[in-house]
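Sequence in, structure out.
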Amino acid sequence: QVQLVESGGGLVQAGGSLRLSCAASGTIFNFNTMVWYRQAPGKQREVVAGISSLGSTNYADSVKGRFTIYRENARNTVYLQMNSLKPEDTAVYYCNAVPPTKWGQGTQVTVSS
């Protein structure tokens, strides 16, 4: 069964950095666009960044210039480098493919002011 495993979250002060990882099964990873999402308490899940199988990227306006998405196909892993973190970045972060598969457990990111 396809699995997505997110990791790398934690507690960080505003202005700090974190790198999230998403390990995916090869069947869905190599040929699919991968997307990072986040869901803050009481809010809907939103798209943060996406990367195509060829490496084209796009970002939500709220994270442009601060976050970078990249992938290592040999490791079936997609990363989200998050710099200059803000308290409003606090959320559970998830990754998924396009089209989506079963959601992983996500990883909690908490940014203190």
